[in-house]
Amino acid sequence: MSEAEKAGVEIVAVSPDPNERSHEMAQRLRLGYRFVADPDLAVTRRYGLVHARGGQQGEDVPRPTTVVLDRDGVVRWLWVSDNFQVRPDPNDVLRAVRAL
Asked: How far apart are CA 100 and CA 96, in angstroms?
């Protein structure tokens, strides 16, 4: 369990992959958080996080995004990338969580 989860932080990953694929990956990597499937990118589009034609075959893909919300649902930290292979530094995320 990560430091964030031990502190009571709930981690949810939104993925365009089917639930089965996300579940398999979570088991393989021993991830304890939930995945929410967004195969048609409806959630991604609602939040303006689509990278149009950014996929390997020119398909729309989600922009990698990490959001830290407080208990009231207020965004306290936001990180967005244009590169689907890039993720934030975990230490930056932990700093944001610790600041809550």
From this structure: 7
